[in-house]
Amino acid sequence: MVADKTMRTEVSLLFSPGQLALAALRRANEEYPVVNFERYLNDILSRQHPARPVPELTKYLDAIDQMVNNLVTPTAVDMKHIDRKLKYCRDPGSHEKSKKRKHRSKD
Questions:
Q1: d(C-alpha 67, C-alpha 11), whole Å
Q2: Over the stretch 46-102, which tens digit does the pLDDT of each residue have?
Q3: Nearest to 11 by CA among 55, 57, 67
Q4: How far apart are CA 9 and CA 69, in angstroms?
Q5: Is residue 104 predicted with pLDDT exceeding 70?
Q6: pTM greater than 0.90 (yes/no)
Q7: Torsions phi, psi of 38, nearest 5?
Q8: Which backbone phi and psi does 42 adopt, to 5 degrees?
Q9: Which of 23, 28, 92, 83 minimizes the C-alpha distance to 57?
Q10: Measuring CA to CA, which residue among 26, 23, 1 is closest to residue 11?
Q11: How many CB atoms sit inside 10 A of residue 47's CB?
């Protein structure tokens, strides 16, 4: 659920997959505490990236969480409008045909 909500935002274009996974893990761990996440981060970073500080990574994870929290789910009316636009983008010629049919039916 956490990862699904994350993928509905633009964070996948701004952050690396590893950062997204860590943010999802941290968020899930807040709901269902299983491990000490801060200690886990310190252990992982000290072994793999000793030059990269934990506060820097935490800043990125906070930014991801903020973007996910600000996600607005579109209403059904908005979705219909978006669907119409997508159909037009897929086949712009059908829009012109539809206009011609409407114009002929008025005559």
A1: 7
A2: 777 777 778 888 899 999 999 998 888 889 999 999 898 888 888 877 666 666 666
A3: 67
A4: 10
A5: no
A6: no
A7: -60, -45
A8: -60, -45
A9: 23
A10: 23
A11: 8
For residue 9, the tally of other CB atoms under 10 A from its CB is 16
**Three-state DSSP string of the chain:** CHHHHHHCCCHHHHCCHHHHHHHHHHHHHHHCCCCCHHHHHHHHHHHHCCCCCHHHHHHHHHHHHHHHHCCCCCCHHHHHHHHHHHHHHHCHHHHHHHHHHHHHHHC
Nearest CA among 61, 73, 79, 77 for reference residue 25: 61
d(CA 7, CA 13): 10
Torsion 17-3-77-103 (CA) sign: positive
